[in-house]
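EI: anyone free to look at a 72-residue chain?
SC: sure, send it
EI:
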Amino acid sequence: MATPAEEAELEQLNQIERELEVQRDWAKYRWEKTNSECYQKYWVNRCLSESRAEYRREIDPIRAQEVELHEV
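SC: here you go
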């Protein structure tokens, strides 16, 4: 049986995990939208590459936070 303090900590960790999931979902949505827009441009591969790089810049800190969260 968990103590009230442990339960509060678990709830806080669950809340952080949900927030990170929302951030990840929005990052993926923006990436997919940008990729879709790339196919309307002449330099499709360059646009896709830039889109992927932007996604990585956005998602890497989220992943780092998730790893840290799961190590707790």
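EI: Residues 13 and 72 are 9 Å apart (CA to CA).
SC: 👍
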